[in-house]
Amino acid sequence: MSGDSEKRSFHGQLTKKYLKVPEDGRIETESFLDASEQSVIPLLDKMGSTAFVFVKSDVNGNISKLRKKHSENPERFKTLYAMVEDEMERKVTDDKNSATDALIWLIRGLNFICTFVQLLSKHDETEENIQPCLQEAYDNALKVHHGFLARTSIPITFKMAPNYSDLIGALSNGVGKEIIMEDINNYVEVLQENINAIHGFYVQQELKDTPLGS
Question: Residue 56 maps to which CATH number?
Answer without folding.
Answer: 1.10.3520.10
